# Entry
Amino acid sequence: MTAWAFILSIIFIDGWTGSSIPTGWQFIALTVPWMIWRDPALPWPITALGMAFIVYALAAVRWSLNIDFAIHALWMQGAIAGCFILGYKLHNLDGALRGFLLGACVSSALAVAQWFGWNHILTYANDTYPGLYYNPVIASEVFAVLVIWLLAAGKPFHILPLTPGILLETSRSGIVAMALSGLAYLVLRDRRWLLALIPLAFLIAWYIAAPDGRDTLRLAIWSATLANLSPFGAGPGAMDSVLLPFHGSFISPEYAHNEFLDYAYQYGLGAAPFLVLALAPALATDRLEWPAYIAFLAAASYSFPLHSPPLAAMGALLAGHLCSHLGLARGLRLDRGYGILSRSATA
# Structure
């Protein structure tokens, strides 16, 4: 599992190993089925919810705005579902944590090189240093989830190699995710930390009252998406076809910058089973992986982590593993990894 997570973290090099379709989705699609095929069964509540969403998503292709975007969206859903099943079956995620950490260390080191002017790897914009994650928003969120995960696992010194990448990221997304998940963890242990919600509410109000360009665009996307919600949804991949008037021109936002809103726009009421599966893991509050998943959910509420292969896989593995510790009828889980890519899963 260590090797699998590490390769997933470094396999996409924009302009070298992939472009319009991130190589990570292809890697997941080629490897995960082999890692779960011996026992893909899940408890019936999870299976029922998953099948309900899949059936509806396939039916929604009929009214999708673009068949190519719809097929790509369904492909992504299959990759995410596979990672969820894999996370459910694994006895622990130690190997995944090691692999994602090693991959993040590579990007952290590359971020330093990019800061010094080494620009042989394409990035989303100039003066950003996301390493191999291409987008500084995604990079900051990967670092945020890993930092919280490592702290919860009692491995604070493993954060040190990530420090350059964390400091060089200009996105606030990861900082907010760390703050919200950290506060949730503290409130869970001592409710007196609820008082910290007061300054947090003022901070959110200040952001809304005096937003910068990115916040203005995000609010415009949210407003337009909410105004166009429908009971049946616009179909898989519909956000890729949206053109939004903004400051005298039209832009294609690609994402709703809120995964819950994004799924509601695509699938309407049919997104309900998926959202249940996404939120249910938050009930497993006694697991050390819980704070990391809360950081992921926080990022999902204002960003697009499910559209990045490494980050989506990380979130799906965490979700599946946390679901395996809820009070559901449990299927069998892997006693050992299958093949070289998952050999260290239970180490």
